[in-house]
Amino acid sequence: MEIRLNRSDFLNELAPMQGIVERKTTIPVLSHILLAAQGDQLRLAATDLDVSLTSSVTADVVSDGAVAVPAKKFMEIIRALVGDEVHLAEEEPQWLTIRAGRSRFKIHGMKPDDFPSLPSVDETFGIDVPFDDFRAMISRVLFAVSADESRFQLNGALLKLKKDSLEMVATDGYRLALVETGLAGGGREDSVLVPRKALQELQRFEGGSETLGYHRGEHHLCFRLGRRELICRILEGTFPDYDRVIARDNDKNVVFDRKQLGDAVQRVALMTGDRARAVKLEFSDGQMAVSTANPDLGDAVEEVPCEFAGEEFRIGVNPDFLRDFLSAVDTAKVRFELKDENTQAVGFPVPPDDDAAAGDGRYLCVIMPMRI
């Protein structure tokens, strides 16, 4: 193999591969990237056996060939090089020489045959989604995906395709986030569990106004954006009946300035402990007091103005859950539907007055109460 290619273009496609490769693995080849030159393209591939990513870069291919190279070290070398062009050559088996400017590196790789075969997805069914919309959906639910490996059915988000909309839901049992956006030409109804790692890598993509192609196979999902194709294994298991978690009879509405509330919660949360992550929210006419008391550290309280009129009540919540929701929305104000200290809080972004319909979608976050 011998090729020449633009260093900047190469780096753009190398960078997303870093999130796929396994750093600590008993299978050495999974920490490698496969480079395969043919025609006028250099194809790149990375996999951890559950999530795979392939891409390509236009190159001047002098001779075809393939080799798997250590992903992290190879990326560090290419990033550190000076010059617009990179010259890659496999001058002897499993040894790749890298030249750029006055620099020369030689890195040991592995046989391409040692690299795992990548799955393929039947493309008989698929839809196209504006990538910016899809990435925004991920950012609004990803924080609610469970990190508890024993609850594998919660280690991803439910992607639900409806006739004219696309819905994404995630929960870890303590909070739930749901986002829905309009979808032209959906037609077919379907639902599937997308693993967290696939969502994280898709969120890191940069696509601008490009369209994301989505295809579902029997055991795998395929997401295609430009030259990149991410394939992931479908999570097995049954997602909870999330509609039952969303409180329908909360009779108290409270509106806050989002930044003001977030800053106050962050300050008061400084006095919470690692084991008892809870703050108390006490509501009265026109204001809310957020407080916490820690016998080992001390206590803190701060008053926050809000739009509320009614009987006084209180509720305990995890401040991290509250801040995650506030960070996921970009509106100036947020609204909470509440009932009492034993009922979950439901948060919504408040759209500007000139956009009362909030586009063609919806977003809500359910936060379970804590004993205080």
Give a nutshell description of this structure.
The protein has 372 residues and is of the alpha+beta class. The chain has six helices and 25 strands. 35% of the residues are buried.
How is this structure best described in words?
It is a single chain. This protein is elongated. The protein is 16% helix and 42% strand. With 372 residues, it is an alpha+beta fold. It has helices spanning 7-14, 71-80, 131-141, 196-204, 258-268, 319-328; strands spanning 2-6, 32-38, 41-47, 51-58, 60-63, 65-70, 85-92, 95-100, 103-108, 126-130, 156-161, 165-171, 175-182, 190-195, 211-216, 220-225, 228-233, 252-257, 279-284, 287-294, 298-305, 313-317, 333-338, 345-350, 362-367. An 8-stranded antiparallel beta sheet has the order 6-2-3-4-17-16-15-10. It has 3 domains: 2-114, DNA Polymerase III, subunit A, domain 2 (DNA Polymerase III, Chain A, domain 2, Roll), CATH 3.10.150; 127-239, DNA Polymerase III, Chain A, domain 2 (Roll); 246-367, Roll (DNA Polymerase III, Chain A, domain 2). The termini are far apart.
Helices and strands in order:
Layout (H helix, E strand, L loop, with lengths): L1 E5 H8 L17 E7 L2 E7 L3 E8 L1 E4 L1 E6 H10 L4 E8 L2 E6 L2 E6 L17 E5 H11 L14 E6 L3 E7 L3 E8 L7 E6 H9 L6 E6 L3 E6 L2 E6 L18 E6 H11 L10 E6 L2 E8 L3 E8 L7 E5 L1 H10 L4 E6 L6 E6 L11 E6 L5
Antiparallel strand pairs: 1-5, 1-7, 2-3, 2-6, 3-4, 4-17, 7-8, 8-9, 10-15, 11-12, 11-14, 12-13, 13-25, 15-16, 16-17, 18-23, 19-20, 19-22, 20-21, 23-24, 24-25
